[in-house]
Amino acid sequence: MMNTQGTKTSPHHTATPTEAVSNGPGPGSGLRPPVARNSRNSRNGTAVAAMVLGIISLITSIVFVGGPLGVIGLVLGVVALIKARRTGVGRGMSVTGLLTSFLAIVVSVLVAVLLAWYADHTQKCYRPDSFQQYRQCVHQQLSGD
Q: In this structure, what DSSP letter does residue 41 have?
């Protein structure tokens, strides 16, 4: 008869205390710890969505689309960060989503403020006869001439 180490033992052999106690996989046991076969368990889909929305919102923030997308990305980033704390997966993507979404919101607000300032200061120039007249009017209005 063979024991678990592959050595011959007598049929009346009793296990020693170290042979009888097995704590599962460990050094020298020849067993490996279980590996997650399903890769979906190792992903945080909310974190991926937050990161993608954050990047898209940052790219489109100059044309105001980024602001609303940034708000959605910010909410998803917070949810993903909470999930990442619980599961330990997706923290980097969650933080990336949060930061890019926040930056997109800031850029969208700055663009809106600058556009409103520009519109206020060039209000008299909106009905020119030509583009050249418009340029001259805007130059006069912004330089204070």
A: G
Q: For residue 17, which amino acid is it?
A: P
Quick one: pLDDT band at residue 12, thresholds 50, 70, 90?
Answer: low
Structural tokens at position 20: 């009888």
Give the pair of three-digit tokens for residue 72.
Answer: 């959605």
Other Cβ atoms less than 10 A from the Cβ of 131: the count is 8
For the chain, the structural domain boundaries read 44-143
Name residue 118's amino acid: Y
Q: What is the mean pLDDT of the chain?
A: 80
Count CB atoms within 10 A of the CB of residue 54.
30
Residues forming beta bridges with residue 8, ordered by sequence position = 2
Q: What angle do CA 38, 45, 73 make, to 5 degrees?
A: 175
Local structure of residue 25 (DSSP, 8 states): S
d(CA 78, CA 49): 12
**Taking the CA of residue 21 as centre, how many other CA atoms within 13 Å lie in the half-sphere pointing to its CB?**
2
DSSP string, 65-125: THHHHHHHHHHHHHHHHHHHHHHS--HHHHHHHHHHHHHHHHHHHHHHHHHHHHHHHTGGG
